[in-house]
Specification:
470 residues; alpha/beta; FAD/NAD(P)-binding domain; Enolase-like, domain 1; 3 domains; five-stranded antiparallel β-sheet; 16 helices; 33% helix
């Protein structure tokens, strides 16, 4: 007899979801976490970063109030109070993910490191336990690139950034992905000098038509962006030495160069679980092909070599698949065709489905539909017209949607559903959208598909003929 029906390694979003549902269904569950309950998202990622951004956006709104005829002085940044706001947001949400709550659900919570001792057994501290099913939800950690001198210079990652006691005078950010850009705008808005250094282009995975205006906005807000730059060394300062000879000195260095799955200490070989440096190999149902009692979810899962998706909402999505497969024995597979992602700058950059470049690489004959926020009445009324809606369409259906707009993350949901359910473009063009909202921009973009045929000469002749009917 196994000690537990289910053992879950990791108490982040994915692991907590699986453990909660399994316990409420009456299964015996062990939840193992060596760090903080709630994982990266609650403690070091989504929540503290959005709390810091909220403070920065408020300061920026005060600076820009003059466009409405409201004159305000330069905001005074109380850095300890900002930090208190950030940590207060974490504390307010923490009870939902707490050890006490899960013990109350009947989960056995073990606060220690887990490693495989056998295909069906784990060592947790000095205790050996067995389980019928094991779910690995150990997450990921900040990737630290192998740059000469970096290991000898104090730097922060997302795990330590929010513990900086003093406001950075000049924050250097190594990496121009979502974390780097969000923290660049947050610190610039709070009065810090910020320089982002990126080896490729910023937001490299996003549509270039949306990235270009965002780049300009960040520059206008005081963020210095250096792209296509190779860092050959890091020196005490901290200072970044570039291949072209430039030496950029700051007061603090944030390494935001991507994520790596947390595979260390799991002893996967002992469990017969195959993994690469990209994560734990699974089928599209998130089950290990080499140990059928093991599943992997969240940042650590690499289903059929398609690569991990390091988003909290993906972890929750994975949890639903594992619950259906492992607990109910129902067929379930991942499908990332309608997976949204958002960079929470202001304006936000949201994308779902294929970008124009991705669709072309896959051989689709696409139509590209655009509607700028400069032609949206709500944006005009609020004097905030930077942004764009861009749709990638093939055969009357949306393959991808990108939005650069305030609260684009809220707007992208309609297009996530449309792509996931294969809703026809005609239905989207005909939907009723409240006026005035920025959501109208997406409807107008969809309507642009039909504009050429609607006002073509053939249609004009037909309408003139129909006018003769009684």
């Amino acid at each position: 007899m196994a000690d537990f029906d289910l053992a879950v390694i990791g108490a982040g979003a994915a692991g907590l979801s699986v453990a909660s549902v399994a316990a409420r269904l009456g299964l015996s569950v062990a939840l193992i976490e060596r760090g903080r309950m709630g994982g990266d998202c609650l403690n070091y990622g989504c929540i503290p970063s959005k709390a810091l951004l909220a403070a920065a956006h408020t300061a920026q709104s005060a600076r820009r109030a003059g466009r409405y005829g409201v004159r305000l002085p330069e905001p005074e940044i109380d850095w300890p109070a900002v930090r208190a706001h950030v940590h207060g947001a974490i504390a307010a949400i923490a009870p939902t993910d707490s050890e006490g709550r899960y013990r109350g659900l009947g989960v056995t919570v073990l606060r220690d490191t887990a490693r495989f001792a056998a295909p069906d057994a784990l060592m947790v501290g000095g205790r050996r336990l067995t389980a019928r099913r094991i779910v690995i939800a150990a997450g990921s950690r900040a990737a630290v690139p192998n740059i000469p001198g970096l290991a000898d210079v104090p730097f922060v990652t997302n795990e330590t950034l929010f513990d900086i006691a003093e406001k950075p005078a000049h924050l250097l950010i190594l990496g121009g992905g979502p974390i780097g850009l969000e923290m660049a705008q947050a610190h610039a808005g709070l009065g810090c000098r910020v320089t982002v250094v990126e080896a490729a282009g910023i937001a490299a995975k996003e549509d270039s038509d949306l990235v270009a205006p965002l780049r300009s906005i960040l520059a206008d807000q005081g963020v210095s962006i250096i792209e296509h730059a190779e860092i050959v060394a890091v020196e005490v300062g901290p200072a970044l030495v570039l291949r072209d000879g430039r030496r950029i000195v700051g007061s603090h260095l944030l390494v935001a160069a991507g994520r790596r799955p947390s595979l260390v200490d799991l002893a996967l070989d002992a469990g017969g679980v195959r993994a690469t440096d990209r994560g734990i190999a699974t089928d599209r149902g998130l089950r290990s092909p080499t140990n059928r009692r093991v599943y992997a979810v969240g940042d650590i899962a690499d289903p059929e070599g398609v690569g991990p998706r390091a988003f909290t909402h993906v972890g929750s999505y994975h949890a639903g698949i594992v619950i259906r497969r492992a607990l109910f024995r129902l067929p379930a597979r991942i499908d990332y065709a309608a997976l949204p992602r958002v960079t929470y700058t202001d304006p936000e950059l949201a994308q779902v489905g294929l970008t124009e470049a991705e669709a072309q690489r896959q051989g689709h004959e696409v139509s590209v539909l655009r509607w700028p926020l400069a032609e949206n009445d709500r944006a005009i009324a609020e004097a905030d017209t930077a942004g764009l809606v861009k749709l990638v369409v093939a055969r009357g259906r949306v393959l991808g949607a990108g939005i650069l707009a305030p609260h684009a993350g809220e707007m992208i949901g309609t297009w996530t559903l449309a792509i996931g359910r294969r809703v026809k473009l005609a239905a989207l063009a005909g939907m009723i959208v409240p006026y005035p909202t920025r959501g109208e921009a997406a409807k107008r973009a969809a309507g642009e598909f039909y504009t050429p045929s609607l006002f073509a000469e053939r249609t004009r002749r037909l309408v003139r003929a129909l006018m003769w009917l009684p």
